[in-house]
Amino acid sequence: MNKKLAKKDLNWAELGFQYLRTDFRYSCSFINGEWQPSTMLQDENLVVHEGAPALHYAQQCFEGMKAQTAEDGSILLFRPELNYERMNQAAARLLMPEIPALMFLDAIESTVQANYAWIPPYGTGASLYIRPMLIGVGENLGLQPARRYDFRVFVSPVGPYYSGAGLGVINLAVSNLDRAAPRGTGSFKIGANYAGGLMATRMAKDLGASEALYLDAAEGRFIDEAGSANIIISMKDGTLVSPASHAILPGITRRSLMTIAEVQLGLNTEQRPVELRTEFESFDEMGACGTAAVLSPVGQIWYDRAWHNVYKDGQTVGPVMQKLYDTLVGIQKGELEDTFGWLHEVSI
Ligand code: PLP
Ligand code: COI
Questions:
Q1: For 261-307, what is each residue's pLDDT tens digit?
Q2: For the segment 118-159, what is each residue's pLDDT rounded down to a tens digit?
Q3: DSSP 277-292
Q4: What is the 80 CA–ligand 2 centroid distance (Å)?
Q5: Ligand nearest to the CA of 130
Q6: Whose CA is nearest to atom 10 of ligand 1?
C-alpha cells in the first residue's frame, strides 16, 4: 500500500537537520511489568504525568539511526542491531525495562514503512532520521525509577547535521566544561549527557566553531569526543587512531569506519588515548563521525586560546577522510558491495 503513495513534495536537497513532522509514530507502553500492544499514532504530542521521572530525573534514553533509499528504490537500514544493543545498555544503566529485539526491529521497520512518503529519494543527499526513545513516565516524586515506560519511535527526513552538504569541513572548540565523569554515564546514549552539553555547544558556537570538543574530565589532556560525534584521526605515520575512553559514546559510525580502514583500505588502526597538546603536530587529518554527522573533516581546533590548523598546508579535505566517507556512504546507500553484511532492507 505504502509503495503507491506519492513522495511528499519537499525540496529534499535543501533539508537541514531539523524536526519535520511526519505522519506516523510508533508507541508502546510498559505497564505492570509487561509491554502492552503497540500502536501507530498520528499525534506527535505525548501527554506525560507531571511527576514523570523522565522530566525530573532524566530517566530516559534514545537512539539515532538512518534509513536510506538505494538506487533501485529499496530502503536500507545500517546495522540496526547495534542501536538495539546500545539502547538496552542505556536502559539497563538507568533501571529501565529491556526492549525485546523483535519489538525494537518491528518498531523501526513499521515506522519507516508507515512514513514511506517521507523517505528522501535516492540521489538527494538526504535520509530519513529515526529516533527511538524510551522514557520513564507515570506519577513519582522521590528519586526512584518509574513504574511505567513509553517506548516511541518517530522519524524525520534530514539533510546534513553541520551546514554544508556532504563532506563539509567543520571546526571544533575544546570546552572547559566536562561532558562526562570517568565512571559516569558518558558511554550511554541518555539525554542527561546532552543537556549538560548545551552550554558547551553554545560557547563553542560563540567562538565560531560548529561544536564543542571534550577532553577527558579527569585530567583535561586526552581527546574524548565532540558534542554529537566521535573523533577519528589520521596520523602522519598513516595510522588511523580513535581515542579510547570509557566516557565516550561507543559510536556505530566510528566502529564501522575503523573496520573499513583496516579491512578495505589496509590502514593500521588503533584505539588508544590521544593526548591533544603533545600529539597535535602528528595529526594529518581529523574527522568527527556519527549517524547525524556522517563524517565531517575537522579543519581547525580551538584550544589554549588559539585556533590550531589540522591541515597545515591549507588543504580542506584529506585523502583518508575522503576515502572513508566515500566507502561508508557508498555502503549505506547500497552503491558499494555490502561485504560486511551491515545493511538491513526494510520491505515496503
Ligand atoms: N558521540 C555522541 C555524543 C553522539 O551523540 C553520537 C551520535 O549518536 C556519536 C558519538 C556517534 O554515534 P553513532 O555513530 O552511533 O551515531
Ligand atoms: C545522532 O547522530 O544520531 C545523534 O543522536 C546526535 C544528536 C545530537 C543529533
A1: 999 999 999 999 999 999 999 999 999 999 999 999 999 999 999 99
A2: 999 999 999 999 999 999 999 999 999 999 999 999 999 999
A3: HHHGGGEEEEEEEETT
A4: 15
A5: 2
A6: 229
pLDDT of 165 reads 59
Best probe residue, ligand 2, of 83, 108, 133, 161 (max atoms within 8 Å of C-beta): 161
3-state secondary structure 293-344: CEEEEEEEEEECCEEEECCCCCCCCCHHHHHHHHHHHHHHCCCCCCCCCCEE
Catalytic residue among 189, 205, 323, 333: 189
Ligand 2 centroid to residue 4 C-alpha, Å: 31
Q: How confident is the model over 96-109, as a mean pLDDT?
A: 98
Q: Which atom of ligand 1 is nearest to the CA of 225?
A: 1
Q: Is the pLDDT of residue 1 over 50?
A: no
Ligand 1 atom with the shortest distance to the CA of 254 = 14
Region for residue 163 given its phi and psi (left: phi exceeds 0; alpha: psi -120 to 50; beta: otherwise): beta
pTM score of the predicted model: 0.96
List, chain by chain if needed, residues with CB within 6 Å of any ligand 2 atom: 64, 228, 290-292
Q: Is 189 a catalytic residue?
A: yes
Q: Select from 173, 188, 172, 182 the least CA-distant residue to 217.
A: 182
> Which ligand number lies closest to the CA of residue 18?
2
Please tell me the distance between residue 11's alpha carbon and the centre of ligand 1 in angstroms.
27
In three-state secondary structure terms, 147 is: coil
CB 135 within 8 A of CB 56: no
Give the integer Cα–Cα distance in Å for 84 and 127. Answer: 20
pLDDT digits (tens, 9 = 90+) for 39-64: 999 999 999 999 999 999 999 999 99
The fraction of the chain above a pLDDT of 90, given in percent, is: 93
79 closest CA partner among 290, 346, 344, 347: 344
The reported pLDDT for the residue numbered 141 is 95
